[in-house]
Amino acid sequence: MVREDLYRREGAEAIIVRPLDDIVLLYHRPSGQTHMVISPVPEILDAMADGLPASATMLRDRLALLYDLGEGDVVGEIGQHLAYLDRIGLVRPA
């Protein structure tokens, strides 16, 4: 079994979310930065709202309950999004 990195979302008070048509603005209070993102980033963050550590596989399972994720390397794509979210400070390693 391959070990997957676990991540936690920043607390709800740290991120202000504002939908704007097809994009979502995420204002990160601690850094003062605003990020413009598109799907599936907001959905991934929503799936992490409970504050519990989550891996890409765990998030795929959570998202699959709500969305048709299609074919392909969904876990790999979610992992790439998590790495991006870590770089910009919206999630952190657990």
What does this structure look like?
- With 94 residues, the protein is of the alpha+beta class.
- Helices cover 32% and strands 24% of the residues.
- It is built from three helices and five strands; from the N terminus they run E-E-E-E-H-H-H-E.
- It has helices spanning 41-47, 56-64, 74-87; strands spanning 7-9, 15-20, 23-28, 33-37, 91-93.
- Strands 2-3-4 form a three-stranded antiparallel sheet, with no helix packed on it.
- Helix 2 (56-64) packs across helix 3.
- The protein is globular and about 35 Å long.
Features:
94 residues; 32% helix; two-stranded antiparallel sheet; alpha+beta; three-stranded antiparallel sheet; 24% strand
Short summary:
The protein is of the alpha+beta class and about 90 residues long.
Topology, please?
Elements lengths: L6 E3 L5 E6 L2 E6 L4 E5 L3 H7 L8 H9 L9 H14 L3 E3 L1
Antiparallel strand pairs: 1-5, 2-3, 3-4
Helix pairs in contact: 2-3
